[in-house]
Amino acid sequence: MTFAFAITNRDIFGTRKIIYGTFTNGAEDVGGDVTLTGELHQVDFFWVQATGSTPGNQPIIDEAFPCGDTVTIATDAGQDGIWMAWGR
Questions:
Q1: Average pLDDT taken over every residue of the chain
Q2: Order of strands, edge to edge, in the sheet holding 81-87?
């Protein structure tokens, strides 16, 4: 299995769209891209959190904000988690 993400919810706070979701990694995968094409054209803020009983190291966001519609995250191998993006 490779890195995969899913959108689980959408909301609007004032002038910003908020997109929530999950990500999963295969046993050897160490992150990937969360692409929000059609949802956001600019990401102003992105939050990520590892999940599981022993999550290991915190995932790292490899972007400077604001950025386009794709956010790259780096994780420990096989790590799963949740994320949230704010933007327009």
A1: 94
A2: 4-13, 16-24, 81-87, 43-50
Give the integer Cα–Cα distance in Å for 54 and 33. Answer: 23
Residue 35 — very low, low, confident or very high, per pLDDT cuts 50/70/90?
very high
- Would the pTM of this model clear 0.85, i.e. be above it? yes
Question: Tokens 């990520």 correspond to what residue?
Answer: 48
Residues constituting the chain: 88
Count Cβ neighbours within 10 Å for each residue of 41-71 and write b for 16 or more, e otherwise. eebeebebebeeeeeeeebebeeeeebebeb
Cβ atoms within 10 Å of 31's Cβ, excluding its own? 20
